[in-house]
Amino acid sequence: MDLKRYPVALYLALVVLLSTPYYVLLARSGSMDMGRGFVVHSLMWAPGIAGLLSAWLRHRSVAMLGLGWGRTRYVAAGYVLPILYSLLAYVPLWLSGLAPAAFGEFARDCATRLHWQNAGLLAPALLQIFLTLTFGAIQSAASAAGEEIGWRGYLVPALREKYGMGATVLLSGLIWAAWHMPVIFFADYHSAAPQAYAVACFTLMVLITGGIAAWLRLRSGSVWPAIALHAVHNAFIQWLLDPMTDASGNGAWYAGEFGVALVIAAGIAAASLFAHSPRPASPALP
Questions:
Q1: How far is 53 from 63, CA to CA, in rounded Å?
Q2: Does the pLDDT at position 1 exceed 60?
Q3: In sequence order, which residues have a C-beta less than 8 Å from that of residue 159 and are 6 or more positions away?
Q4: 160 Cβ contact partners less than 8 Å away, ≥ 6 residues apart
Q5: What is the mean predicted confidence (pLDDT) over 90-111?
Q6: HSE-up of 228 (CA within 13 Å, CB side)?
Q7: Apex CA 170: angle with CA 169 and CA 175, to 5°?
Q8: Which is nearest to 7 in space by CA: 68, 53, 63, 48?
Q9: 115 CA to centre of own chain
Q10: CA–CA separation, 284 vs 286, rounded Å?
């Protein structure tokens, strides 16, 4: 097979090959915390390693993956955007009571984890927020980089060479969503909402946020803005906003990555981005 003629097929075959052992381990345990979470974080590097291998097998420079830093403003945008669309999703849920705030429980947990029970609740909570948005984002990026080097570093430019922006976003987003499905169906990466509804919301959220990441990647020529977006999205939502929110009962229909609020909020962010900024052109890859 001429590997240069089938860059996407080669990449996807490698992703499946590298991901399957981790899927099996996670399915056997049923827990994303297996091995202190090291199994799932190793899985997150399967797309990136597949991208590196694909570039090597096609005799292409790793520069095609966008590993250069690029313009800092795009990396900053990748950091800020998930904070904005996440707050746009969660604050209305807290105010309306659709998914009530659980600030007290969050603050008490922060005080316990920080061993700072004698300082009240506000100071430990603020410190935890600061730590999460600084070092926590860096720690999250160590795993998110594995996915982004693959999905946005390799796959998005490879698709963009053949398809328009809309098809590139749609195809890369559907592939990214499908890659998550084994841990959704066979491990505990899910919510209390009905499964079909939760999967639909998750897929739409991934399509939209993946579209934002693809725009940043192609516009900047660098994968780092997409890494920043993915890392802050995971850290801010999973480590801060979800623990601040009571998503029991009907709240699961609205909050979290399997609820509808993030779909709407991220959709607003994406629509604003695409409406007010020119679409990136097809990248010039080495």
A1: 13
A2: no
A3: 8, 167, 168, 171, 172
A4: 168, 218, 282, 283
A5: 97
A6: 23
A7: 100
A8: 53
A9: 31
A10: 7
Sign of the torsion angle spanned by Cα atoms 105, 29, 179, 140: positive
142-181 confidence digits (pLDDT tens): 999 999 999 999 999 999 999 999 999 999 999 999 999 9
CB 7 within 8 A of CB 158: yes
CA 221 – CA 283 distance, rounded (Å): 7
Ramachandran bin of 39, using left for φ above 0, alpha for ψ from -120 to 50, beta for the remaining angles: alpha
CA dihedral 16, 211, 260, 101 (to 10 degrees): 100
Letter for the amino acid at 4? K
For 220, phi then psi, to 5°, come to -90, -25
Average pLDDT, the chain: 94
Q: Say if residues 260 and 254 touch (Cβ distance below 8 Å).
A: yes
The answer for residues whose C-beta is within 8 angstroms of residue 16's C-beta and 6 or more apart is none
How confident is the model over 54-58, as a mean pLDDT? 93
Would you state the structure tokens that stand for residue 69, as one six-digit string? 């830093």
Report the pLDDT value the prediction gives residue 119, as an integer from 0 to 100.
77
